[in-house]
Amino acid sequence: MFSLCSSVYPEPNGSRCLQTNVSRSPSGEIHVIVGPMFAGKTTTLLHRIKSESSNGSFQAEARKNFLRLDGTLKDLCFSGRLTEAVGILCRAELQLHSKTYSLLLQECIFRREYKKGRRIHAQMITVGFVPNEYLKTKLLILYAKAGDLETAHILFDKLLAKTLIPWNAMIAGCVQKGLEEVGLGLYYKMRQSGLTPDQYTFASVFRACASLATLEQGKRAHGVLIKGQISGNVVVNSALIDMYFKCSSPTDGHLAFDKSLDRNVITWSALISGYGQHGKVGEVLEFFHRMINEGFRPNSVTFLAVLSACSHGGLVNDGWEYFLSMRRDYGIQPRGKHYAAMVDLLGRAGRLEEAYEFVLNSPCMEHSVIWGALLGACRIHGNMDMVKLAAKQFFELEPENAGKYVVLCNAYATFGLWDSVAEIRGAMKESGMKKEPGYSMIEVQRLVHFFFMGGNSHEQTEQIYEMIKDMICILKDAGYVPDVSG
C-alpha cells in the first residue's frame, strides 16, 4: 500500500481539509486522496497508480509525491505554520531532502519547540533516513538546548569531524543544565584538540566560571580571548562583567565594562546587577541614571537590580518611585520578582502590614516568590501571626520547597514553639523531603573543591582536619583567645 501522509487541520475560513486516504479499487488500482496542504486551498488531489504499472512509472509518481511533500513543508515552515508542517511530516512515509529537514529543525530550535524537533528526528528513524554530518550537528544543538545531554552526547560521539559548532553546543548545553564543571572540562578538551574558541565559546565559559566563582579559570579564559584577538560581542562582554563581579572582583568587572565598545542595555544591566550583588547601592543608582542619560532604556532585569538595591539600602520612597516608573515611563509590566522585591523592600523596613496589603492587591498573588519574600520579612521582625499566614499561602503554591520549611522551622524555634518545629520536621521526614545542603568551594591549582555542610566526602578530609588542628595549636601558642561572647 502506498501512503503519502495524512493530516487534518482547520482552514482559515473554518472549513476542514480532507484526510489522506489510501484505497484499492476492484480493478487493482491504488487511489491516494491527499488533502490540500496549502493555506486557503480546498482542492482535493486524486492520484491513481496501477499496481501493474512499470517500476519506472511508479518511481516517477513517487518522485512527484516527494517533491510535492517537500515543497509543501517548506511553504508551511516559511509561513510560520510549524505545527502543521511537523504534523504532516510525521504522518508521511517518505524521506525528505536534507535541506528540508534542516529547515524544519532550525525552526524548532529558533522557536524552542524541542518536542517537535524530537518528532522530526523520530520520523527520520522511522523512514530510514540517515542524516549527514550537518544534520547530526543540527540535531545535537536541538537536544543540547532541550537539556537532553545524554542524546546530545551520543550524537556528538558519532560525528566524524568535530568542528567548533558541536563543541560550542555541548559546552553551552552543560552550562545551561548546571553542569558547569563538565562544560569547562569540554572547553579544555576542545582546546587540546587544536580548535580555537570563538565568542560563543567564551560566553559559555564565562557563565560557567561565574556560577562556580572560579576567578582564576575565568581570568585564564579572558587571557586566551585577548591573545587570540577575538572581538567579544555584547553577550560575551556582559558574561565577562558578570563573571568578575560574581567572583568578587568588582574592579575587574568595571574595567571589562569600560573596555566594552558596543554597549547596550544588557551590558549596562550586567554592571548595575554586579554592584547590586556587592551591596553597592550608591553605585547601582549612579550607573542606572548614567545609563538613562546616555540614551539607553532600562529593561526588566535592570529594574530588578535597582529595586533589590533599594531594598538592601532601606530606600523605601526611592524604591516605590522606581517601581511606578517601570510601567509609567517605560511601559514595562512588573513581574513576580519585581513584586517580590517590593515586598522585601517594605518588609525589611518593618512595614509588614503595608507589604501584606501590597501582596493582596498585586496581580501576582499566585506567585510563590512573593509569599516567600513576605515569609522571610515576617520571620526577621518576629510577627508570628503573619508568618503563619504567609507560610500557608506559600506552601499551597509550592508544597515541596524544603528551604522554606527550614525558614518556618527557624521562625518557630525563635519563639520557642518546639512542638511546631517537631511537627514540621516530622512531616518533612515522612514525605522524604530534604533541603539541599549548603556548601562552599575554593579553587586551587585549576581544581574546584566543594565542601558541604556537615559532610566529610572530600577525598582529603583527614588531611584538612589535621591542618585545622595544627593551625589551632599555633594560634593558642601565639596567645590568641577566641571571642565567643556573640
UniProtKB/TrEMBL annotation:
EC numbers for this chain: 2.7.1.21
PANTHER family xrefs: PENTATRICOPEPTIDE REPEAT-CONTAINING PROTEIN (PTHR47926:SF347)
GO MF annotation list: ATP binding; RNA binding; thymidine kinase activity
EC category: transferase
Ranges: PPR repeats: 163-197, 264-298
Protein's organism: Nyssa sinensis
Keywords from the UniProt entry: ATP-binding, DNA synthesis, Kinase, Nucleotide-binding, Repeat, Transferase
Name of the featured protein: thymidine kinase
Record bears the keyword Nucleotide-binding: yes
Family: Belongs to the thymidine kinase family.
GO biological process terms on file: DNA biosynthetic process; RNA modification
InterPro entries, sorted: E_motif, P-loop_NTPase, PPR_At4g14850-like_plant, PPR_rpt, Thymidine_kinase, TPR-like_helical_dom_sf
